[in-house]
């Protein structure tokens, strides 16, 4: 009996511990998190065919904090970008700079246009491992007028931002 007592205790302990184990909660990398706002740039001279046109030396800066966005390569030629929207606000403003360069005093010399995107936040539960993600609804914009606008036409292609697989905003320049 003395030899079987430890075996019985071990078996009973194993019986109670095993059901307590569960699969690790790891959020898969392919899970749709909070999407970026996808903007595609088009040629104003070929508006009927929706011909994409790269913006020369594009820089995008947060209007509220003057920091250059890190979700896109700075001062490169791009025809499509993904930019983050604020999740604790219902509007986000950006300065889009065409032909971005800096002179000897590090002063920005490119052509600036300011866009403010307005939207409604919608928090969506993904899973226990992934938590919540934000989706955006009723997207619209305001274009701050200036004397030398390089952005000519703006169209909201999809006012609900649920993923970043397609363009949400078309900008013609």
Automatic annotation (TrEMBL):
InterPro entries: DUF6452. Residues 1-22 form the signal peptide. Keywords: Signal. The keyword Signal applies. It comes from the Bacteria. Pfam families: DUF6452 (PF20050). This is DUF6452 family protein. It comes from Abyssalbus ytuae. The lineage of its organism: Bacteria, Pseudomonadati, Bacteroidota, Flavobacteriia, Flavobacteriales.
